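Quick check before the chapter quiz. The format below is the same one you will see on the exam, so make sure you can read both the input and the output lines.
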Amino acid sequence: MQQLQKDRYTTRLNKKPEQIDRRERVIHAKRGSSPPISPSLIQDFERDGFVVLEDVFSPKEVARMRGTANEMRDYPASLSDETVISERDSGAVRSVFAIHRQTSDFDVVARDPRLADVARYILGDEVYIHQSRLNYKPAFKGKEFYWHSDFETWHAEDGMPNMRALSMSVMLTDNHPQAGPVMFVPGSHETFISCVGETPDDNYKSSLKRQETGIPDADSIAQLVDEGGIVAPAPKAGSVVIFDCNTLHASNGNITPFERMNAFFVFNAWSNRLEKPFAAKSPRPEHIAHRRVESPLAPLSRVTGKVGRSSS
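Here is the expected output.
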């Protein structure tokens, strides 16, 4: 495992926080290609760093995904070791990782052109799944996620070289403004916040429950919020929230009776595959950051529902 590219986003190695301008485009679409969604939504994504697609999946599709998600939560012993993450206090299931590798249902969702074709267009490349997981925010006891950029962690601990990845969150339940929906800072994807503090050994074991390393400083957060504000979309089940790898986001705890659940897929450009971590002694395990990927994500036919000829 080698470091092939110069580190353009140094983090966790400095004595004080630093703000670094984004070094690459947000939209990498090839010249002359047509977007699979409205061009205005692509423009919104480029400007804000996130966008909401309403009514992507039907109620029947959502019900099937939610049923699978409930089974995975209720029978964690049937899943691969270490892929189930619990809340630090209550013990409730917080996340399940590598869901597209553990169930055919979510493998199909990851390949669905309603997701994958949008990722291919925005990233201007073939894609693969860097990470997939189910996020559960249980009623009454779902904990918060503090402000962070996913790319900061993926760069520091996984070795993702550049900002050429995005996340897609498929809503499996209706969201409510009071139940801790994800908050975004519009425009924050254009600024990388270099964080302070070395990466502890096996940091992932604690950070997946509560992140304390690689979080932005308060002054930088306040500045970006002052410039862009905070938006907390609360779409209904079947909707998809797409956000850039560097968009600053967070969520409050959930003390309401409303459960929040989503299926989360990270699409990375094939040309942006992982290298040696830029600020950690060793990479995070395979179920959190996929390295053993031999070829780009194979397409799924809309008509037949069968995987195409290329490998996954």
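If your answer matched, good. The chain has one domain: 45-272.
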